[in-house]
Write a structure and sequence with these properties.
The complex is a heterodimer of chains A (128) and B (153). Helix content of chain A is 41%, strand content 23%. Chain A is α/β, with parallel strands linked by helices and 128 residues long. In chain B, 41% of the residues lie in helices and 20% in strands. The chains are: A alpha/beta (128), B alpha/beta (153). Strand 7 of chain A pairs antiparallel with strand 1 of chain B.
């Protein structure tokens, strides 16, 4: 009995599932030109904290969980998740570096009104 | 006899099939290409929000002018970034105009050397890109500031 075709197919399936799960993870990340800083900390270190991510696109529109969202709905969503998180919710803002500050200021205000002051910005490390 | 053996050896070596090896090499190639991570590693910039500007009424029109709290409370260092002509930005440090970012860093170091926990509030104008605001925020943290905030309105 020739086992080779079965092993071939099994390997192909393994690779397919490995790759597709990897791509599914990357899909959540919107490609953005983040601000560049020197004092950013390793995001792995603070990953344990429950976090909601808000993406701010170059045109100033917001996205949460891969869906476009208005500022009011974002505030509601943050408030709802903040209320059900025991240690409080952290909001991670991934913003394009050319977005005017008015958008971020409104978002920060929405965060405080939703009850959380724990806001972090996703940044790129300064390229040497 | 000897010739016969060599002939047989040569024959069998020609029969080695390359196809499975090529299959495996292509599979490995595809696997490593697709699992390779070409994304730039992201870091986090922990930040605080200064909600002094948020009036109880919640209306932006009712907010006090940004200079006002700086006069009331000496501990608060405010930095205002305003877009001037030709996309240059004008920086104000407690009301005094500062020519460039390096001078801001010097001022911040001087203030923080005197008192490390002085609250520093970064308050850029509406049209200033977030990269400039984050840059000033970053400078305050580099200077050793323990309490650096973004102004929310």
């Amino acid at each position: 009995m020739n086992m080779t075709p079965m092993i071939d197919v099994t390997f192909l399936l393994i690779i397919f599932f490995l790759v597709s799960s990897h791509l599914a993870k990357q899909e959540n990340n919107v490609q953005l030109e983040l601000p560049i800083t020197q004092t950013g900390i390793d995001s792995e270190l603070s990953n344990q904290h429950p976090t909601a991510t808000v993406h701010v696109l170059p045109d100033g529109s917001l996205q949460m969980g891969g869906q476009p969202i208005s500022l009011e709905n974002a505030q509601r969503a943050i408030a709802a998740r903040h209320a059900e998180t025991p240690g409080g919710l952290r909001v991670r803002i991934r913003t394009d570096r050319n977005v005017p500050y008015s958008v971020i200021a409104k978002l920060l205000r929405a965060c405080t009104q939703a009850g959380t002051n724990d806001v972090v910005f996703a940044v790129f490390d300064e390229t040497p | 006899m000897r010739t016969n053996y060599t002939d047989r050896f040569n024959q069998s070596s020609f029969e080695i099939s390359m196809t499975p090896m090529i299959d495996v090499v292509f599979l490995l190639l595809i696997f490593f290409l697709t699992t390779a991570n070409f994304e730039i590693i992201e870091q986090l910039l922990p930040s605080g929000i200064s909600d002094q500007g948020i009036a109880a009424s919640g209306k932006a029109e009712d907010l006090p002018p940004p200079e006002q709290p700086a006069e009331v409370n000496d501990c608060i260092v405010r930095i205002l970034a305003k877009p001037g002509e030709l996309k240059n930005f004008v920086f104000e440090f407690n009301g005094a105009t500062i020519p460039d970012l390096e001078a801001i860093s010097q001022r911040l170091r001087a203030v923080i050397a005197a008192r490390a926990d002085v609250p520093i509030i970064v308050d850029p104008d509406d049209s200033v890109p977030i990269s400039i605001a984050v840059d000033i925020y970053d400078r305050a943290r580099t200077a050793g500031g323990l309490q650096v905030y973004f102004a929310a309105r």
